[in-house]
UniProtKB/TrEMBL annotation:
Residues 31-402 form the Sulfatase N-terminal domain. This is Sulfatase-like hydrolase/transferase. InterPro entries: Alkaline_phosphatase_core_sf, GAG_Ulvan_Degrading_Sulfatases, Sulfatase_CS, Sulfatase_N. The lineage of its organism: Bacteria, Pseudomonadati, Bacteroidota, Flavobacteriia, Flavobacteriales. PROSITE patterns: PROKAR_LIPOPROTEIN (PS51257), SULFATASE_1 (PS00523), SULFATASE_2 (PS00149). It holds the Pfam family Sulfatase. Belongs to the sulfatase family. Keywords: Hydrolase.
Amino acid sequence: MIKFKNLFFILILFSACKDKAENQEPNQVHPNIVLIYADDLGYGDLSAYGGEISTPNIDKLAENGLKHTNAYATSSICTPSRFSMLTGEYSWRQIGSGVAAGNDGALIKPGTTTLQGVLQNAGYSTAIVGKWHLGLGNENGPDWNGKITPGPLEVGFDYAFMIPATGDRVPTVFVENHQIVNLDPEDPIKVSYKEKLGDNPTGKENPELLKMDYSHGHNQSIVNGISRIGYQTGGESALWKDEDFADIFVEKSAEFMEDNSSSPFFLFFSAHDIHVPRAPHQRFVGKSGKGLRGDAILQLDWTVGAIVKKLEDLGVRENTLIIVSSDNGPVTDDGYKDMSDEFLGNHKPAGNLSGGKYSVLEAGTKIPLIVNWPGVVRPNTVSEALISQVDFLRSFASLTGIEVAIKNAPDSFDLHKALLGEHLRGRESLVQMGTSNGFSFIKNNYKYIVPNNASPEITWGPDVKTGFSQEDQLFNLKIDPTESNNIAKQKPDILDSLKKEYKRIRDS
Ligand code: NG6
Ligand code: CA
């Protein structure tokens, strides 16, 4: 493996590598890649992006690297964002706009071209550690007590240690590769999203057992004093403790990096933070002064610092490309009474954007994106190039010299130069998706929000503006980043051209 010391050198190598790739030969541009993907972290949540909660470890990556200010997840909820990022295909083409249930079957079918599969083909060892939330098992869902397959290992990962769905959904156990960790065969686990199982307490019936009360949903099985979505019984020896997530994920990642430090590796570190339930380790509780949501941000920052330290200890930091981003925008109360609104103070999770998780407004999908690669990505740079996480697949393929057939990863563009800050030419346009099948389309700094019958406010819980309207909406993001002034009637030509272009992409 070669360590690159400057941009000029890498540019020469890129052209050399391209020729080799066309001849199907391996090239030499194989940095380790660590993709740290936070959950529900907003555009304004990091101090590098103006947040009030100090995130020194993440900020250091931005200071010594590139901060993107016009980068997007494809959706304002988790499952579709992750699907698009890992497959290079807008999720609405395949799986729609919903959040996967905890017992859904695998949503990425074996044989699909994936980001991790591309890197595997380029000779990388690949791992996911953390939240999966893309379904496991066949269409009837996984056999939790047996071999859990298909899953990440069937779509390009060599190693997986994961929360199968989310921290707030059953089963509340870790799955390592094909099996639940520490499961006692004498005490099998049962999972249902339809009916209560056995006599285990639920949040609804036994609120006195809760250490964190729920505000909406989340009133079914209680595990570790927190009630969840869904019912489960059994599997006592395998149940997780939420407070240990960060430590365990760092430990598993460290083991993976250590085992693979002599060859290139790709680590998809898919953090639980700062999703609900927010139950960070005791050492972070009360430390942010901004409540548990702020404390979870501190825990995320600690996690990033611990991963960077491990890379340094292994002597591979110089040759590692680190990316920090988030799967969707922020939300405060997302179903638990964790006082996240009450403690916010001047901290603005969405920065100056409107909306948040679930919405089609900018805060739903515009996310932090930090890219750091010593000696290659210039320190202290900011990029306004329009870029989407769906572009990671072709960008990394190009970087590592792997060709991806045109029919695969159809929505992904090779933007590795924009991603690394070599120039500002990003994608031309972008389709965004919110909850309730809500869509919007961005081109040339104009944003068209497609008419939708759903409510302008979320009606079932979180206090979030969705951005939905039955009318056409058009905003000039350059002068109106808060999407306050609908200019659809003043700019009929622009509206018409965005509508046509959006329709062409949706129908393609
Ligand atoms: C919602 C949950 C929310 C969160 C979300 C998925 C309720 C009332 N709300 O249905 O708490 O789990 O799904 O979040 O149940 S995501 O980041 O994984 O998309
Ligand atoms: Ca999320």
